[in-house]
Specification:
Blueprint lengths: L12 E3 L4 E4 L4 E7 L7 E7 L2 E2 L6 E6 L2 E6 L8 E9 L2 E12 L16
Parallel strand pairs: 2-9
Antiparallel strand pairs: 1-3, 3-7, 4-5, 4-8, 6-7, 8-9
Length: about 120
């Protein structure tokens, strides 16, 4: 008679998020990596300032095996905030976070009419 022992490998981060400063209008990728593929289904949740990130025109969530990423293109000053990636697998939950500062003018601000100066 054969006996099988199934082990539960809880998730762990191999790479965590880091604070970053970027100029408005550029591409930003927040990325963390798991140490190995989980043996059980997992749930990945991204939050900004403690609010779940939903689908926005300039934000894409990428979950590719061990790599978990949040792409923001183009960045806006409104994207400034505290971002967190939470991974839940079974009863275990791990998180990592970073502060993102987006510098520059707001994209939605109206600079007014362009004036040319002729000399």
């Amino acid at each position: 008679m054969m006996h099988y022992v199934l082990t539960f490998t809880p998730p762990a981060f191999r790479q965590v998020l880091h604070d970053v400063t970027v100029k408005s209008g550029h591409h930003l990728r927040l990325q963390c990596k798991l140490s190995s593929l989980p043996t059980h289904p997992l749930t990945v949740t991204w939050t900004k300032n403690q609010h779940c990130i939903e689908t926005y025109d300039n934000i894409t969530v990428v979950n590719d095996g061990c790599s978990l990423a949040l792409d923001i293109t183009p960045t806006e000053t409104a994207d400034t905030g505290h971002y967190k990636c939470s991974v839940t697998c079974g009863s275990r939950r791990i998180t990592c976070s970073a502060y993102v500062a987006v510098l520059g003018k707001r994209i939605d601000s109206d600079p007014g009419p362009l004036r040319l100066r002729v000399t």
